[in-house]
Every structure is written in C-alpha cells, then in structure tokens.
UniProtKB/TrEMBL annotation, chain A:
Pfam families: Sld5, SLD5_C
Organism: Phanerochaete sordida
Record keywords: DNA replication, Nucleus
Biased composition (Basic and acidic residues): 36-50
Protein name as catalogued: DNA replication complex GINS protein SLD5
SUPFAM superfamilies, per the entry: GINS helical bundle-like, PriA/YqbF domain
Location(s) in or outside the cell: Nucleus
Family: Belongs to the GINS4/SLD5 family.
Record region (Disordered): 1-57
Domain named DNA replication complex GINS protein SLD5 C-terminal: residues: 206-258
The GINS subunit domain, residue ranges: 99-178
Transmembrane keyword on record: no
An example Gene Ontology CC term for this record: GINS complex
PANTHER family on file: DNA REPLICATION COMPLEX GINS PROTEIN SLD5, SLD5 PROTEIN
UniProtKB/TrEMBL annotation, chain B:
Subunit structure: Component of the GINS complex.
Domain DNA replication complex GINS protein PSF2 N-terminal span(s) in chain numbering: 13-71
Keywords, ordered alphabetically: Chromosome partition, DNA replication, Nucleus
Record carries keyword Transport: no
GO annotations of cellular component type: GINS complex
Superkingdom field: Eukaryota
Domain named GINS subunit: residues: 75-173
Record's protein name: DNA replication complex GINS protein PSF2
Length: 258, 187
C-alpha cells in the first residue's frame, strides 16, 4: 500500500493533517461556539447552526463512521469502501508502529507515555469502528449470499474477499441443506430457488421498501415518493421514507442514514 | 453470527456515544503536551491553562485521570436549556438542538459534573426537554403515511428511540397501500 509518511501523519509531527483538521473545524464549529471563544459580550443573536458539515469536510475516520451507520441502517448491501479502509488501516498500522518504536525507547519520559496512551486509545477506537463496519457487511452478505452470487449488480458492490466469502457461504449452506434434508425428499421438492406463484421467492433479497431515516448532508435533487409526489430534501432535513426513495442519494453521498 | 442478534434491529446507545465522542469539546488542560498527530487530526499543544479543543473521547480520558477541566459547550447550561424548554412546551415543532446533544450531555455530565454549574438543574432540564420532545414524536406517529415523514430537528438518540416502531408502522402502511393496487392488477 502507499506510504503516507509525507502526509505528516507520523505521530509527533504535525504537518498537512493539522491544516486539514483545522479547516474541518472551521466548518463544523457552530458559530455560537466560535463567538463564545472570543468572549464577545453581545451573544444576543442566538443563531445556532446545528446542521451537519458537508461531506467534504469530513476526516477519513468520520467518513468511516458515516459509512458504518449507513450500512447498519440500509436494508441493502452498499458499495464497498475499499480505498477508505485501506487508508485507515495503513494509518492505524503507522500509529501502532510509532507507538511500538517509542515504547522500545528507554529514554522516553513520563509525558511521552501519556501521549502514547492517548494514541493507542484512538487506534483502538478506529479498530473497533472498522471491525463493526465489516461485521455489519458480513452479516448482510451471509443473509443474502445466494442472491448476491447470482446478481451481477450485487457482486460489483463487494470486495473480492467479500465475494469469495459469499460464494463459499452459499455453496456451504446449499450442500448442508442437501445432505441433511433435501436428498431424502422427492426430486421435485429439492429445489432451493423455486418460484411458486403467490409465495415469496425462496431466495431472500433485501427489502428495499423498508423505511429508513435519511439525513440530508447537502441540498438534494428531487426524488419520487411512493404516493406520486416528489420531494427535495434541504440540507439538514431528516425524513423517514422507504429505502428505495433515497437509494440514489445515498449512493452519491448526499444523504446519510441515521 | 457476524452481527450479534442484539445489534441487528437497531443501533444501541453505546454505539451512538462512540460516534458522538468524535466531536470536539473545549478543555482546560492541567498537563502539558506537544501537538500530536492522531488518526482524526492533530490536537494540541496543551499548555495549561490555555484552552484547547480536543475530541470528547480524549477529554474523557484526560478528565478521568484528573488532567483537565472540561469547558461545557455553549448549549449545555441552565440558561440556554431553560430557553429551549420554554420553546418545546409552547411551540408545536421541535426546537433546534445539536444533533447528538443527548449523547454528549450524558458523557460530559457523567464524567465531569463538577465542571458544570448546577449539574443537577441541567440534568432535570434535559429530562424535561426530553419528555416534551417525546410527546411530540408520539404525536408525529399520527401523521405517518406510506411515503414520507419529515422530522425536522429530531436528534440522533430520539430517532433511535422511535425507530423500531416507526419503521414497522411504515412497513404495514406500505403493505396496505400496495395490496389493493395488486388486486386491481389481477382483475
């Protein structure tokens, strides 16, 4: 994977990453807080902007948290975020390596230990969120394994490793069902993918009509609602609506699920 | 098995707390620390008694080791919350609150109540606001239909609370709408 040394992500150094976070802070600082910091006496106009920051101001870790929650709430499997995960994993590894180096150094002071502890705490948080995100995907991938394997559109959304897992999982469950029960049934009842009229299909697929809470991060283009009308979500608006309505907005990162 | 059954239906408050802990809060450090690069950005330098903005998880960590005081956010004081409570009880709509106010207030009040003036008063105001808002979200259920329900200014914890019931209700409404249409098609 690429090295991020020159990004100033090394532990004690604070290069461009500091500038990056600072711009992010400017955006998501509610004006009220900024004003209070200046200790300005005229606090009268209590205009508080609690709206979410636009996605461009997010740090990679915040992006991961957003994708994690999207994945948790969406009934469907979303697009894999391989680039983001790789970047974060590299970064976690770099932080851990730096910590190991500093630890090995017998001259490091009490202050150093304290900093090491904070860096480790954060690395743990990042690892936890990463795992939680991947586990959420795995859960859905196993649930819809057969559907994923036979739908090209779904396969595209998975990473290579996830797709292999889905294929193996589908094959394993199928051979298990066959050996345990189906072999003993008459030929015509052995199918695992029958489409009986008036019955739900045997292969379970994501229920896109399930309602989700969507939180608009930007001003969104209009979408069609099931009742025939159209809706334009304003930045900051929260709506409960069926998943298929906002599916495209979510794929483009214009809304997040909360 | 990838996801324990307890986590499948909804997100749990502890997870929301983890996400909220990424937000920044002002602290007055009691120890010095050089500016340090973290995964989410660079924080510091800590130079007592100069105020500094750090993520809540770091503030919690420092506070538990008695290495900082937390400066309460501007919306977490008696005066502001009293104003919001008045709005909540006199107006039909939800008043504007930070999206993750419930999580942040809980974390900060749990670990740093001595940094607040009148923490008990703040707690009871938060509880009153919560109850006023809960009543409104229950009322919102009567406006639910199968296509869309707009919930301005609802906070993350409140959404999580009403999620299971609202999502299922909308599912039932969707089925009710879809079924007559389906039958017409067959005729």
């Amino acid at each position: 994977m690429a090295h991020y040394d020159d990004d100033g992500w090394g532990m004690p150094a604070a290069g461009p990453s500091r500038a990056r976070r600072d711009t992010a802070m400017d955006v998501d600082d509610p004006p009220l807080v900024a004003r209070a910091a200046d200790d300005e006496p005229a606090r009268a106009p209590r205009r508080v902007d609690f709206r979410p920051p636009p996605p461009s101001a997010e740090t990679p870790f915040e992006q991961l948290l957003r994708h994690w929650m999207n994945e948790r709430h969406a009934p469907d499997v979303l697009h894999a975020q391989e680039g983001l995960l790789a970047r974060l994993l590299d970064h976690i590894k770099k932080q851990t390596d730096d910590v190991a180096l500093l630890r090995a150094d017998p001259d490091s002071s009490e202050d150093e230990h304290f900093r090491i502890m904070l860096v480790q705490t954060e690395a743990e948080r990042a690892r936890f969120a990463l795992r939680a995100y991947i586990r959420t995907r795995l859960h859905k991938i196993e649930k819809y394994a057969r559907y994923i394997v036979e739908t090209p559109e779904m396969r595209e959304r998975l990473t290579q490793a996830e797709l292999e897992h889905a294929q193996r999982y589908a094959a394993l469950t199928e051979s298990h069902f066959t050996r345990a029960v189906l072999d003993a049934l008459p030929e015509e009842q052995r199918g695992l993918d029958d489409n009986v009229p008036f019955m739900p299909p045997m292969i379970s697929r994501p229920d896109k009509t399930r309602a989700v809470f969507a939180h608009a991060l930007v001003q969104c283009p209009p979408v069609h609602l099931p009742d025939g009308s159209s809706m334009e979500m304003e930045r900051g608006q929260i709506s409960l609506t069926p998943y298929h309505v906002i599916e495209q907005l979510l794929a483009r990162g214009e809304v997040e699920l909360v | 098995m990838a996801l324990p059954p307890s986590l499948r239906t909804s997100v749990i408050p502890a997870e929301l707390e983890l996400i909220a802990s990424e937000q920044l809060v002002e602290i007055i450090p009691l120890v010095a620390m050089e500016r340090t690069a973290f995964i989410s950005g660079a924080y510091g330098p800590l130079r007592p008694p100069v105020k500094c903005r750090v993520p809540i998880w770091m503030a919690t960590n420092l506070k538990l080791k008695k290495k900082c005081h937390i400066v309460p956010p501007d919306w977490l004081n008696v005066e502001f919350l009293q104003g919001r409570l008045l709005l909540e009880t006199t107006r039909p709509e939800f008043s504007e609150m930070p999206f993750r106010f419930a999580e942040i207030a809980k974390v900060l009040l749990d670990i740093a109540s001595e940094d607040f003036q009148e923490p008990d008063k703040i707690r009871s105001l938060l509880k009153d606001i919560r109850e006023a808002r809960q009543a409104k979200s229950r009322e919102g259920l009567s406006k639910l239909d199968h296509s869309e329900l707009s919930l301005p200014n609802l906070s993350s914890m409140e959404i999580n609370e009403i999620r299971p019931f609202f999502v299922r209700s909308m599912g039932v409404l969707t089925q009710l709408v879809r079924d007559p249409a389906g039958r017409q098609m067959e005729l």
